[in-house]
């Protein structure tokens, strides 16, 4: 790690950790949605919306701190990228839950639970990794595993699309369900963006 002669603003580490912990909360709400009947989904969506707002607040706090800090722990563009990608994850998860409720989906297609399980695991890994930004240690396994999970998510997504287009569903239902599984896939991509940004930061700081 590069030797620095000046102090660094350390509150960023805590804010990134809080943002990642909030994503874990969102992933748990996604898991809860899977086991809920249609009458309980609106309440879950409301809690997810509150979590998404909390994520927005965390992102705005990071940007405010960045704009008011002379010294930063690593490059400013990387702080922007990391905060933005973390925020994207929550946005996509909230959108998926909202679409399930708005479209009044009776039953999610088989395979969505695998998508959500991948997201939940990626959320746990991301929350575990954020505190390690302080030392830039024990991060390699994190970004390797998240990239593996994203590849797994891609495979699940392709199988889900094949299932949706097999003729079982009518055209309108296909459009609804495809939008939901596509948004969940975007969430998996956003986890990979976070991991790639962390890798970039670690390489620069080594």
TrEMBL record:
This is Phosphate transport regulator. Coiled coil: none annotated. Belongs to the UPF0111 family.
